[in-house]
Design brief:
The structure holds 2 protein chains of 2 kinds.
Chain A (H helix, E strand, L loop, with lengths): L17 H5 L3 H4 E5 L2 E4 L10 H13 L6 E3 L17 H28 L4 E3 L2 E4 L2 E4 H4 L31 H5 L15 E5 L8 E4 L3 H4 L4 E7 L2 E6 L2 H14 L1 E3 L10 H7 L2 E8 L8 E7 L11 E7 L2 E6 L4 H12 L6 E5 L11 H14 L5 E4 L2 H7 L6 E9 L5 E10 L15 H5 L32 E9 L14 H18 L4 H8 L3 H13 L10 E9 L6 E10 L3 E11 L6 H21 L4 E2 L2 E2 L18 E5 L15 H16 L10 H9 L1
Parallel strand pairs in A: 2-3, 7-17, 15-16, 19-20, 23-26
Antiparallel strand pairs in A: 1-2, 4-5, 5-6, 7-10, 8-11, 9-10, 12-20, 13-18, 14-15, 14-17, 18-19, 21-22, 22-23, 24-25
Helix pairs in contact in A: 3-4, 14-18, 17-18
Chain B lengths: L3 E6 L2 E6 L6 H8 L18 E4 L2 E4 L5 H4 L3 E3 L1 H6 L4 H8 L9 H17 L6 H7 L10 H12 L2
Parallel strand pairs in B: 1-5
Antiparallel strand pairs in B: 1-2, 3-4, 3-5
Helix pairs in contact in B: 4-7, 5-7
Classes of the chains: A alpha+beta, B alpha+beta.
């Protein structure tokens, strides 16, 4: 048996919650030393999804204190290392840790109050009361030892009603009123503003640049050149913009030949050298009832606010403010790239514009860090341009899925086969052999960012996320083929492989149902044993009036999945009008997210996911050629507009006694699938290549 | 020496020195410290930078300072000064947002629409709101809540 390191042997195993393994003590999460305030910590970032509000609710509920008295500090590298804010796991992991820590703390403080007051106290509004005497959490803080391991199995107190209530988002009012809140709004004394002049194409080498062209501009203070990295630093954004423009005009680049383009992607991905992983080792199918190929292009995060960060090199400490999803992994990768000890780098989370996965937040943080490191004592803010945001961000990878299914005479599926091809879904900082920060591959001594990897199956996989159907389909063969060459940088984007995999599975099932003359909902129910899944599927069908007549040219489709096979259950029904193009008329969602911390927040996340998925599924495609991303403006990379967004109705299945599950990614796959099935219902044409544009429909008709 | 430009922002007169072509957006953010107006695209494609220039919703990112000279500019901070506009109150009440980055621009566009409809003695309708906001991008998918909030604000 391996020996435990000193001090670690008394920490009980924390199955299923890595956050507690990383930060095992109550005191890692909670501080009661300030009167009237409970200070709570988290490693999960507020990305616009409302997690900060949900965590405050969990703490307030468990401690029986008012929500106004809970102060949640933004993630910082001095706090719990919860790696990334990803995978719809923040409520499970951070919420689970804070719930257990708060519950146990309340028990310890109740014990202390009993000792102090001499009788069993009641607890109201943060005070322990016996008759006329009372003490607060803060009064007892000195005598309660919080260097105690958290017991994740601790029994909950009766809920106070704060969990389960529609607490308004704690951050939203500031944003509506235009108050400084985002990292873009940070202004430190003496702060400089910098812009990066990015390469015109992947692999381009900087041959020459006239630095004086920028330095001659009033307000420009520095030009930084390091290999192929080029940046301008100025007293304000106006001068930084002008300086960057001057450098861009005078820079001479050597651009390597590259014949790769998005038009070749299916060919590229299915013939590339791959790393193959068998997720399920059933037999291959010799004579499938239906075999088909499904594809999606690279997709962009396309946040409305370009990435931004602030950094300052203080005496012995490089401080960074970032809208990253993971302050700790970012710190480790920046320390590695700058070759300095991890404890000489501090990263603090500051809110930014919407985040849907591994976007350029980490890249711009490194931009700011490396510039600040050259200008000791001087805070530097770096903001990306719109073109760089759409052109140099990591992208959600293109994918190809080959499905085959065999059915018996009754229509029952008896064998299933999945092959998924694509680039990996994670090149997050700290997960690759060398730093995964854009500027690092531009620097003289840097290295190119290695091809993205895939999270392990136990963590939900990447290409293989939701590859194995949640239905009873007989034998299942599933092999992921991760490409070892990467035409443009890919990484995690909301739901990872689940978007295309659920689209493919649900399209395939619909075609099999049609083949056997069975209603698609009925067909799914015949294959679905999971009782919570059945309830969700039936609820969505019921809410949408499934089976009722539709107007001419309209179609209706359904899609369903349990996210990752372990997360929330979600079903979507979409009605489309499909004539020359597709218009989504209405969408219905039903979801089971277990116990709900904030119902309105869950509904907001599920609806937002559905709308974003509609945009991906109907419109979006990253286009590139010659190492250059061509879709780097909103004209070239359109997303869904207000006039195109349909009404969305969301029904939550109440499960107050079940563990809470994240809602942010559950609706992506089912919504995409419902659109495809609705188009097939309306037109009798199966579109298997996303996005479902008018051109794609014509192409599907022709084939 | 850059040119001097006079303009009124949120009721206060300012003189700023910057090149003629400097976008109003950066004058507001850099020189006047009004960071509520957002940079989104720089070419008037996303609406995040919308302010009022002489009462008209205008993209500040592609409005050169010379063309705003002598005019009256109102930003989201100015709109909020006398207390939140009904559009802002209803956005908050309806929890109509996720990341919120697009909201400053949407607030300015929607407030102008609602105020104009009030002046005409009528209430705004959903389709009208969707059409007015069609030049504003939201990536989080809060569109329906935003439209509902603006319609509610218009009903006051």
């Amino acid at each position: 048996m391996p020996s435990c390191p000193p001090g670690a042997s008394d920490v009980p195993a924390k199955p299923g919650n890595p956050s507690l393994a990383a930060a095992p003590l109550i005191g890692d999460w909670l501080d009661f030393t300030h009167e009237g305030i409970v200070r709570a910590r988290t490693g999960k970032s507020e990305l616009g999804q409302g997690i900060a509000t949900a965590l405050v609710q969990i703490v307030a509920d468990a401690l029986a204190v008012d929500v106004d008295s809970v102060e949640l500090a933004p993630p910082d590298t001095s706090g719990p290392d919860e790696t990334f804010t990803a995978g719809s796991l923040s409520v499970q992991h951070s919420g689970g840790a804070l719930h257990a820590a708060s519950t146990q703390a309340r028990q310890l403080f109740t014990d202390a109050a009993r000792r102090r007051l001499g009788a069993e106290p009641s607890l109201a509004e943060g005070r322990f009361v016996v008759d006329d005497a009372s003490v607060s959490y803060a009064d007892l803080a000195a005598e309660v030892d919080l260097a105690v391991a958290i017991d994740p199995t601790i029994a909950s107190y009766d809920p106070s009603g704060i969990v389960g209530a529609d607490l308004p988002r704690l951050d939203l009012a500031d944003k509506v009123l235009g108050r400084p809140r985002y990292v873009q709004d940070m202004r430190l004394p003496g702060m400089r503003f910098a812009r990066m002049v990015r390469r015109p194409a992947r692999g381009a080498r900087l041959v020459d640049v006239d630095e004086e062209s920028a330095l001659g501009i009033a307000g420009v203070t520095d030009v930084v050149r390091d290999g192929d990295l080029l940046a301008v630093v100025a007293e304000d954004e106006i001068a930084a913009r002008a300086g960057a423009e001057a450098l861009r005009e005078s820079a001479q680049w050597q651009v390597p030949d590259s014949s790769l383009s998005d038009g070749d992607m299916v060919e590229q991905l299915t013939t590339a050298d791959t790393d193959d992983t068998a997720l399920s080792d059933g037999p291959s199918i010799d004579a499938p009832t239906l075999a088909a190929r499904y594809t999606r292009p690279f997709l962009a995060h396309a946040s409305i606010g370009p990435a931004c960060a602030v950094a300052v090199q203080e005496e012995g400490l490089l401080r960074i403010w970032s809208h990253t999803q993971g302050v700790h992994p970012l710190r480790r990768d920046i320390a590695r790239a700058l070759d300095r000890p991890v404890d000489r780098v501090q990263v603090t989370h500051v809110e930014g514009a919407g985040c849907y996965g591994h976007n350029p937040a980490d890249d711009v943080a490194y931009d700011a860090a490396l510039l600040a490191a050259r200008l000791p004592g001087r805070p530097v803010q770096v903001t990306w341009t719109r073109e760089d945001e759409l052109g140099w961000s990591p992208f959600g990878p293109a994918m190809v899925v080959d499905l085959a299914a065999e059915t018996n005479a009754d229509g029952q599926v008896t064998a299933w086969s999945w092959d998924g091809f694509g680039n990996g879904h994670s090149s997050r900082p700290g997960t690759l052999p060398t730093p995964s920060l854009l500027a690092y591959e531009e620097q003289q001594d840097g290295t190119p960012i290695p091809p993205a990897g895939d999270p392990p199956q136990a963590a939900g996989a990447g290409t293989g996320r939701n590859a194995i159907p949640g239905y009873e389909v007989g034998s299942v063969r599933a092999v992921a083929h991760r490409a070892l060459t990467m035409p443009i940088r890919s990484s995690a984007m909301r739901s990872l492989g689940a978007h295309l995999n659920v689209f493919a599975i649900e399209s395939h099932l619909d075609d099999l149902a049609r083949h056997h003359g069975i209603d698609p909902v009925e067909y799914r129910l015949r294959h679905l044993g999971d009782p919570r899944g059945r309830v969700v599927l039936e609820r969505a069908a019921q809410e949408s009036g499934w089976g009722s007549p539709l107007a001419e040219g309209h179609g209706r489709g359904i899609g369903y999945a349990r996210y990752k096979g372990t997360g929330a259950w979600c079903a979507a029904v979409v009605e489309v009008e499909a004539v020359s193009s597709v218009r989504v008329v209405r969408a219905w969602l039903a979801a089971d997210c277990g116990r709900i911390v904030n119902p309105d927040g869950a509904v907001n996340q599920l609806e937002g996911g559905a709308v974003q998925s509609l945009s991906w599924t109907l419109l979006e495609r990253v286009r590139f050629a010659g190492g250059r991303v061509l879709s780097d403006t909103w004209e070239e990379y359109p997303i869904l507009h207000f006039s195109e967004v349909p009404p969305v109705e969301v029904a939550l299945v109440e499960r107050p006694d079940e563990p809470w599950l994240g809602a942010g990614e559950a609706s992506m796959g089912p919504t995409a699938a419902a659109v495809g099935n609705a188009v097939a219902d309306a037109l009798g044409v199966r579109v298997r290549d996303l996005p479902i544009t008018a051109e794609a429909i014509v192409a599907a008709m022709d084939s | 020496m850059p040119d001097a430009h006079r303009l009124t922002v949120n009721g206060r007169d300012h003189e700023v020195r910057c090149p003629d072509g400097t976008p109003l957006l950066w004058v507001l953010r850099d020189r006047l410290g009004l960071t509520g107006t957002r940079y989104g695209c720089g070419v008037g494609s996303c609406g995040a930078c919308t302010v009022w220039v002489d009462g008209q919703p205008t993209h500040s990112c592609d409005t050169p300072i010379w063309s705003a000279a002598g005019k009256s500019v109102v930003t989201v901070e100015g709109l909020t000064e006398a207390g939140p506009h009904p559009v802002q109150r209803h956005l908050i009440d309806g929890q109509a947002g996720q990341c919120g980055y697009c909201l400053s621009g949407i607030v300015m566009r929607a407030a102008a629409l609602v105020d104009q409809a009030h002046a005409e003695g009528r209430h705004v309708e959903g389709d009208e709101v969707r059409a007015a906001l069609d030049g504003h991008l939201c990536r989080c998918g809060a569109h329906n809540r935003i439209v509902d909030a603006v319609v509610s604000a218009g009903g006051e």
